[in-house]
Give the backbone structure.
Amino acid sequence: MSRSVYGRLKAGEFEGPRLAKERLEVIIPISLVLIMVLLYWLFNSLRDSFLALVGIPFAVSGGVLALYFTGLDFSISSAIGFVSLFGVSVMDGILIGSLITIRSGQPAWMPPNQCSTPRPSGCGRC
């Protein structure tokens, strides 16, 4: 007499959200690192790049509070919304950083032929 071993496999409706959650656990950190790399490429300064990222925790806390007060659960669609919220928050940080740079009397961007200390790439902020 042989014994068969039976187990339960969650599939169908349960498998889709599980796979999406696993993908988001990889995509969200990659997107944050990619945003940081692009900011460094834009500003050529770690300080300015981190200043543009300062708004992300505030945006996330506002999103979590909005989910709480509306009574909604954290789902895949809300996670995708948070990723887009990261982008909007960073765009605001870039605009505020550029405004601060302009108000301080320094040009935010100059053509390469007007730079006193040109960058190796030949363009960008001086």
